[in-house]
Structure prediction request, 532 residues.
Amino acid sequence: MVATIGMIKTRKLLLLPLIFRRNVQQLKSVPSVIETVYAPPEKINPAKETGFVGLGIRPQICDALDQHFHIITPTHCQRKIIPPILEGRDVIIRDLTGSGKTFGIILALLNKARAHTKIKVVEKINRFQQRPSRFSSKSSPPPQTRKIIRRGPPCITSVVVLPSRELAFQVEGWIRSLLQNVGFPSLKPIIQVVVRGQNIDPEEQVNDLRENPPHLMIGTATRIEEIVNERKVDFKFLNTLVLDEADHLLRLPGKHAPLKSIMNRDKHPKPAELLTRQIMERASSKPQVIVASATVNNALRHYFNFNRFVINPLFVDVTGGTITPSTILHHCLMISSEAIRNISPKIELTREEKIAKSREYYELKKQKHNDNLADRIKFDDNDDRMLDSVAVAYDLEQVETGILFIPNRFNVPKLVTRLHEFGLPAKELTSDEMQKIKERPLHLFGNMTRNILYVATEFSARGIDIPSISHVFVLGMPSSASCYLHMAGRTGRMGREGKVISFIRDFGGSESKIRTMLKLLEIDVKPYEHVE
Prediction:
């Protein structure tokens, strides 16, 4: 009994500093969470609409928005987040995918004043400048000194941490489009991207940061953490730290994660957590922190509050109680060696039916010698039957621009080659391809080459915004509900219509698992009309 109580106490002590569980008893024993402000959706009065200028964006940038992106009116999310960011408040943002969160954050950061280093100077006070006291002696007073803080050279103003190098390059493309008419010989003092990759010299990146500290430093968590850890670049006077797709950057263990997983996470923190702690420890004053994701939950908010990364943050939640945009149509197809069918609705079974179904399942499991069963066991997500189903759906949908998400374990170039054999215009979504996309003005996407299917993994394409995506194809079981949400969010952006078709291997408990996942996201899956 004593050992059991000791184990329970040890478990609580391990869980408490992590704040991964929302247990009421734990919350009572930790410092009170700073209250956040809830910003619900509201109807916008057109008479009061003043555009980006009314939100504090400079007229020059507003003109560039109109000229290069044909954007005049901010989205509802941008109306909510730009003013508090410009005020310097800590902000936690949750909104639907494709709402313009990242774009709005970048606009606000570009309008912030440039940060400068501060230099302490000790200055002697001339004795003739000192006012003589009527009670002082005739002898001259000893020389006095005073400390003066003077503004030094400019330093890095904001650091934006993104989940992938592709998204970092895309954000860089936005900024270059906005500033291409400013007349600067180089944009290095304004924007620099730091990522890993081929043909990228890490030392050259560090030298550029030291010689020309940018107003905005953008990159992946791994590379930025390396730079911060090396102490070759000064972040002492950093003004703002942005964690975009924070749930993915931190990847906190789930509510029901086993103790071993929680202890392992505490022993091996993610790069985003390490760089955040190091920046906070070295900063002369706490920088503004902006957290953004479409899947911000209470555990993530409490994590930032408990660690004092944010102080009295504004919680901007403009989801309106929904998780996915209403403009997206969802389908889910179950693929087996015999047939393709729509996912079936959940049917409540009686106790006797459940017992009978369990017995049937175990009988099938015992029949390992059965050829059909062996064939189904070997049936993987990259099987020809799965790829053929994608090809058929692609042709039926008459896709203009689509994206196929595949499990992280698959090799993208090899799968692209196989998709070509099925007649699909597949193309890997590489950094070079993203470079071409980011250099293309937004209003020209309507005239781009049709019939293309980008291929990417769940991880690499998170947060990517390709304007003309009409269809999203999901191959295999998503890693989590959050991953499905972000994959589906690549279409239906900024109010456009979109369609998501998932191809799930029909074996074991896969149907029950995907049904539970979709139910958790409150997604109403429609039957695919081309499948009985």
Remarks:
- Residues 66 and 490 are 23 Å apart (CA to CA).
- The two ends are 59 Å apart (CA to CA).
- Residues 351-366 form the longest helix (16 residues).
- Confidence is low (pLDDT under 50) at residues 8-35, 44-48, 442-447.
